[in-house]
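Lab notebook, design round three. We kept the backbone fixed and only want residue identities now. Task for the bench partner: fill in a sequence for the structure below.
Input structure tokens:
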């Protein structure tokens, strides 16, 4: 694994705009960054990332059955009591799921360490599945990459196949919050893939969702039989229509049981069940006790590095502010992100329909990966 400087494609920003990548730059700072790329060997991809991703995914699914039948675990995850039965039913009725992303600390040697699961509303989907693949093809054609370079990236193909096999009700709605350009771009991408899979797809602003007689409805009052919502379940359960989630016949993607796996509390529960697994880090529900050799304190419910507190093995402390301070916390052993010329790299590994589907890389000048962290493409080359 190494970081390689690269010449950006001329006019890539204009191309990005033309294909709907409207969030390639945030506040004048690059989000998409092709001034460098990360290079892996095929063995690193297959043995150190792809295989552990599928194994950890199955371990997480196996844990769901334990949680839904254990009140103490549901309490530890801060699942609202009035939704326990609904969460349990969504799992026992085998409501299907689509995708998720694991975040790893990995430096090219030794086991990749699982930092967290993003299994409800993972983003970076469009830039992983489409834009970095186009970058690979363009740079190969321009001679900027060695011939034979490949990429661990079957994300778009696997998503299309999954949509074609999910047997979703139609029309199928896709929702995101109005003000988020990034969320809308992600939802538009998924809608396009669903359309290619033959699904009658419609977009609705999340704020336009309504409730009539215990059924979730669109702005015209028509029942919504199926809904992909790029909106966290913990927020959904606080909305005015939250009680409708229990009574409605809507099929949700992701299903309600995914709220268990997108919760940071899944990390200590995984450690309890699979203690010593080479890809897991020691993790515990926080009681104020520090861990030796560095630790990270995370809220049960947080995103994009917000409200993360970190202490390195030599006592250096980092803290990221944020709005997620109203739930419990977990404490996890520190597995520092590898540093390349002052850049700390985090690997996101995608799962679609229980199969590993590719990776993405976020880079920051800090050990804490945030919403402003850059996205860099990658290649496989032996």
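Proposed sequence:
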């Amino acid at each position: 694994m190494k970081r390689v400087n690269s010449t950006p494609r001329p006019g890539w920003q204009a191309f990005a705009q033309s294909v709907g990548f409207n969030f390639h730059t945030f506040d004048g700072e690059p989000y998409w960054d092709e001034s460098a790329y990360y290079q892996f060997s095929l063995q690193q991809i297959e043995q150190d990332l792809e295989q552990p991703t599928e194994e950890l995914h199955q371990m997480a699914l196996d844990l769901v059955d334990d949680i839904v039948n254990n009140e103490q675990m549901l309490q530890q995850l801060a699942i609202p009591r009035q939704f326990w039965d609904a969460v349990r039913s969504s799992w026992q009725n085998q409501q299907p799921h689509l995708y998720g992303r694991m975040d790893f600390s990995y430096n090219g040697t030794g086991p990749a360490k699982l930092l967290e699961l993003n299994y409800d509303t993972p983003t970076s989907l469009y830039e992983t599945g489409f834009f970095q693949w186009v970058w690979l093809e363009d740079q190969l054609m321009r001679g900027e990459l060695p011939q034979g370079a490949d990429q661990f990236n079957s994300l778009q193909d696997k998503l299309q196949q999954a949509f074609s096999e999910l047997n979703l009700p139609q029309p199928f709605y896709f929702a995101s919050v109005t003000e988020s350009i990034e969320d809308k771009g992600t939802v538009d991408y998924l809608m396009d893939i669903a359309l290619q899979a033959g699904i009658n797809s419609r977009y609705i602003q999340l704020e336009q969702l309504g409730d009539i007689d215990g059924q979730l409805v669109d702005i015209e009052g028509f029942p919504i039989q199926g809904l992909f919502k790029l909106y966290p379940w913990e927020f959904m359960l606080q909305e005015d229509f939250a009680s409708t989630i229990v009574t409605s016949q809507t099929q949700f993607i992701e299903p309600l049981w995914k709220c268990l796996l997108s919760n940071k509390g899944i990390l200590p529960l995984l450690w309890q069940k699979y203690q010593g697994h080479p890809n897991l880090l020691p993790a515990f529900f926080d009681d104020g006790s520090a861990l030796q050799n560095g630790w990270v304190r995370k809220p049960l419910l947080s995103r994009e590095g917000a409200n993360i507190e970190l202490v390195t093995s030599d006592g250096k402390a980092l803290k990221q502010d944020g709005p997620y301070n109203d739930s419990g916390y977990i404490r996890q052993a520190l597995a520092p992100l590898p540093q390349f010329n002052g850049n700390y790299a985090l690997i996101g590994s995608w799962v679609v329909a229980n199969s590993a589907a590719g990776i993405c890389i976020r880079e920051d000048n800090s050990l804490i990966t945030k919403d402003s962290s850059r996205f860099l493409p990658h290649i496989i080359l032996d």
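Keep this in mind before ordering anything: The two ends are 11 Å apart (CA to CA).
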